[in-house]
Specification:
- There is one protein chain.
- This protein folds into two domains: 65 residues, Orthogonal Bundle (Arc Repressor Mutant, subunit A); 141 residues, Up-down Bundle (Four Helix Bundle (Hemerythrin (Met), subunit A)), CATH 1.20.120.
- It has a three-stranded antiparallel sheet with strand order 1-3-2.
- Helix 4 crosses helix 7 and helix 5 packs antiparallel against helix 6.
- A hairpin with a 5-residue loop joins strand 2 and strand 3.
- The chain is built from nine helices and three strands.
- It has 225 residues and is mainly alpha-helical.
- Helices cover 74% and strands 4% of the residues.
- The chain is globular.
Length: 225
């Protein structure tokens, strides 16, 4: 095996390991404050210790992991203050991106938004009937819908920054297992309608209620201290 091929395979394993660990943190399978022992991660994710160190350092820069000096790494803890800060940043980024996206979006963008909402609404319907077996799929559809709304904003950096912040917000929702029954679904439908009518001001008002309601509902579960 050539050195180049070894490097490519290592890079592929590293990216796969990074995606899996990051996803497990966001969706709560790796709990807040959990110790990330390299030997355990090596067997669980199938990557070398040196690659794991690189992955965890990368996740530390994203504030999803905390480096403990010589003690190793742990999953970033959660707090009420941090949730409120993340929610405020998400709102700031998303409101700005919505304005730009609504102004620039064409019919293809509109179709993308409507399709993303349709997928989300179907999952929310099952959730409202008490089916919690697709909670992770629900949040993925939620993520895709909000990304669709801002996808025509014209700024790759804004979209990527919003996605990173939204992931941290989503992590709190998964930890709290927070679902607001029909309220969130109605707000999502209102956002869809604002998008198709290009009502950026109305969308901003709905989004502020949506995020504030999500934060308070997550805190009401008592799982975030």
């Amino acid at each position: 095996m050539t050195a180049l091929l070894q490097e490519l395979r290592s890079r592929t394993a590293g990216e796969s390991g990074y995606d899996r660990i990051r996803t497990d943190i966001i969706f709560g399978r790796l709990a807040p404050g959990a110790k990330l022992r390299l030997d355990d991660l090596k067997s669980g994710y199938g990557v070398s210790v040196s690659t794991l160190r690189e992955i965890l350092s990368r996740l530390t820069s994203e504030r999803l992991v905390v480096a403990e000096g010589q003690k190793g790494f742990q999953v970033a803890p959660v707090s009420v203050a941090n949730l409120r800060e993340i929610a405020a940043l998400r709102l700031l980024l998303e409101c700005r991106a919505l304005e730009q996206s609504f102004a620039a979006g064409d019919t293809e963008w509109e179709a993308h938004v409507v399709a993303a909402h349709h997928r989300l609404a179907r999952v929310e319907e099952r959730m409202s009937q008490g089916d919690r077996s697709q909670t992770e799929h629900w949040k993925r559809c939620d993520w895709e819908f909000h990304q669709a709304l801002i996808s025509a904003c014209g700024s790759k950096m804004l979209v990527e920054t919003h996605a990173a912040v939204f992931d941290k917000y989503l992590r709190y929702q998964m930890i709290a297992l927070s679902y607001r029954e029909g309220i969130a679904a109605a707000e999502h439908a209102a956002l869809r309608d604002c998008a198709t009518s290009r009502d950026a001001a109305g969308a901003g008002e709905v989004l502020r209620r949506h995020v504030a309601g999500g934060v308070e509902h997550a805190l009401a579960t008592g799982t975030i201290s």
